[in-house]
Specification:
By secondary structure, the chain is α/β, with parallel strands linked by helices. It has 26 helices and 23 strands. Helix content is 45%, strand content 15%.
């Protein structure tokens, strides 16, 4: 790293304090900022809560031009745009939930309107509208959030991410790429840089170690009983993750019934309800949020004391990211995984459900095209409102089959499914002020309503502006229905464009609709993805089922940190401490016992005689290994080492 300019460093700190109120950067943030300011393509790995957004927002503000931010999460785009706007920074989001005219005006504003940030979803990059306009923008930085999505070896591959490197051809002047992710194995780190055609590989990585986070696995049959006992004894705010929408409600109601303040959250709730629930928890009105993995984006609560996983996640990447939402204030916090033999059985069933056969995927694709009434060879780059429950009842698909098929078609690059959009109503005047004035003179019946709109909202001539029909109705002392009627009539007269409120996920056709026979799904890719999924699930099961290895070390080594020490705090380390043995001493005795028993079965007495170690220490470790299930009695009455293959890398 080149020597940092103290004047530039001072500027970065001034911006940090002015817009975010912090006096100091978190670890690695300033190194990343200096790297991209020096024009380097950079891959930055920062853990959840490590402050990734600061690393591109500061350099973008420190120089002339606009920063492109590519992210697959529309809700995240809008959340960040709202925060930047509140801080007085001009930002825009362009995504497939918008009309062509909204996108057209938005892109024009980014060229001529002194905007500093343009958030886009990756599938927009190849559209002609974006391709032509981006060449006219002075882009100072390209940021790729969730960068692991570009790798087929990552846990959330999205083919649309492969288009990002085309930006290098479209930009009028070169701009550095900053790729950001919280989790990536060494192979994925290499793949990200190759796929984004980095001029030179350059990685800045914070340690994956969370020294204040205590990892615990609790093997319990009655998980609800454990929750009740644990939460009654321990205080603080927390999150309980479960895979079932129905179970989020059941657990929350059980906790409330037992006088523990709780609420539930999942993607099936409407946008306003989710916003209300999240705000209530973040403000501290509710202590516990029981949720599916839909809860997490945009959470900025530092004092989360625990994250409990009621069910087994699919990958260690997902587990690490979700567990990392605890203890962001640097104080002691707990990441607890509840586990039993039933979870192993359910994991095997998950493989079957997540990988429907290719014939069923094609049947789903055909039904989806019919549902949207898309002609063959049509629909490319078009977005359609999608209600899974309606589709399921009409075409007799289970919800798991729907989402599994969509996931596979996404990975093949045929469609994209957005998170649920809750688009507030918007208006934009399509005439200029003089034309509007003449209209008001000739059509006096609309004059009062137009004046109400202009008094209530600014910027309606240059951009689409969010409006609230109910608020307008109160001001006018009229019904909401009358306000909507006026807006629709003015739209018909082409005075303004009115986009009514809607909330729904959307399916985007990234390729034209194909005939079933021409829909190519590679059996080789299908098999490879299934094998990758199974491998990652095995790593997760290994973590949950391990009884002799430090939890933190398992996670760190998975992410490529090999020079690690036992954390001394997880459930495994604490059990070893009870033996009154040092970790290294325990490991040495453990290894020697394993080697002896792998040769042939032995009794405890034979182990004591053969090992040049303290008798009491050997017996302690033997007892520990028997309790952990590593050693079992054999048919000859001696001790047998029970081998479990480690998951492959």
């Amino acid at each position: 790293m080149a020597r940092q300019d103290p004047h530039q460093s001072n500027l970065y700190r001034q911006l940090l304090e002015k817009y975010w109120g912090f006096k100091q950067f978190r670890p690695l943030q300033e190194d990343i900022i200096h790297s991209v300011m020096e024009g380097r393509d950079t891959l930055a790995l920062l853990p959840t809560g490590g402050g990734k957004s600061i690393t591109f927002q500061i350099p973008a503000l420190a120089r002339e031009g606009i920063c492109l931010v590519i992210t697959p999460l529309i809700a995240l785009m809008r959340d960040q745009v709202e925060r930047l706007t509140q801080a007085g920074i001009k930002a825009m989001a362009i995504h497939s939930g918008m009309t062509r005219q909204e996108i057209d005006i938005g892109l024009d504003n980014c060229i001529f309107g002194d905007y500093k940030f343009l958030y886009i979803s990756p599938e927009r990059i190849e559209t002609e509208l974006f391709r032509v306009r981006v060449q006219k923008m002075k882009v100072n930085l390209v940021t790729i959030d969730e960068a692991h999505c570009i790798s087929q070896w990552g846990y959330d591959f999205r083919p649309s991410y492969l288009k990002i490197t085309r930006l290098r051809e479209y930009l009028a002047t070169p701009a550095p790429f900053l790729a950001l992710t919280a989790t990536a194995t060494p192979g994925v780190v290499e793949d990200i840089q190759n796929k984004l055609t980095f001029k030179r590989h350059h990685v800045l990585q914070a340690s994956f170690e969370r020294s204040n986070l205590v990892y615990l696995v609790r093997e319990v049959e009655d998980k609800q009983k454990y929750l009740l006992k644990s939460l009654s004894k321990n205080q603080g705010y927390g999150i309980i993750y479960t895979r079932s929408r129905k179970r989020t409600r059941e657990i929350a109601e059980m906790l409330v019934k037992n006088h523990i303040s709780a609420d539930y959250y999942h993607a099936g709730l409407d946008y306003d309800t989710r916003e209300t629930k999240q705000d209530s928890w973040q403000k501290g009105d509710k202590r516990v949020m029981v949720s599916t993995n839909a809860f997490g984006m945009g959470i900025d609560k530092a004092d989360v004391r625990f994250v409990i996983h009621y069910d087994l996640p699919d990958t260690l990447e997902a587990y690490y990211q979700e567990a990392g939402r605890a203890g962001r204030d640097g104080k002691r916090a707990y990441a607890v995984l509840l586990y039993n033999k039933g979870d192993r059985t359910r994991a095997a069933d998950r493989v079957r459900r997540n990988f429907p056969n290719i014939k069923d995927i094609k049947t789903f694709y055909e039904a989806l095209g019919n549902y949207f009434q898309i002609p063959l060879e049509g629909g490319k780059n078009m977005a359609f409102d999608f209600t899974a429950s309606d589709f399921a009842s009409r075409y007799r698909f289970s919800l798991s089959a729907i989402y599994s098929s969509i996931d596979f078609l996404q990975k093949e690059g045929y469609i994209e499914l957005t998170d649920e959009l809750s688009n507030k109503s918007k208006v934009h005047f399509q005439v200029n002020r003089d034309e509007l004035y003449n209209f008001q003179l000739t059509r006096a019946g609309y004059d009062t309503f137009i004046k109400l709109l202009l008094r209530s909202y600014t910027g309606v001539f240059t951009d689409y502006v969010k409006i609230d029909e109910q608020s307008l109705a109160r001001k006018a002392n009229a019904s909401k229905e009358l306000i909507v009627k006026y807006l629709i009539q003015l739209k018909k007269l082409k005075i303004l464009d009115y986009i009514p409120y809607r909330k729904t996920p959307m399916v985007i056709y990234t390729e034209e609709r194909l005939d079933r026979r021409n829909l190519h799904i590679s059996r080789e890719k299908y098999t490879r993805r299934k094998e990758l999924y199974v491998q990652k699930l095995k790593h997760m099961l290994h973590y949950a089922g391990s009884t002799t290895r430090c939890r933190s070390r398992i996670l760190l080594e998975y992410f490529g940190q090999t020079d690690t020490r036992p954390c001394g705090r997880c459930d495994v380390c604490l059990r070893k401490k009870e033996l009154e043995l040092h970790y290294d001493e325990f490991d040495r005795i453990h290894q020697q016992i394993r080697e002896k028993l792998r040769q042939h079965n032995r009794s405890t007495e034979e182990l004591v005689d053969e090992l040049p170690l303290s008798e009491s220490k050997v017996i302690k470790v033997v007892d520990f290994l028997m309790d952990s299930g590593k050693i079992v009695p054999s048919s000859d009455g001696k001790l047998l080492w029970r081998d479990k293959k480690k998951p492959g890398r």
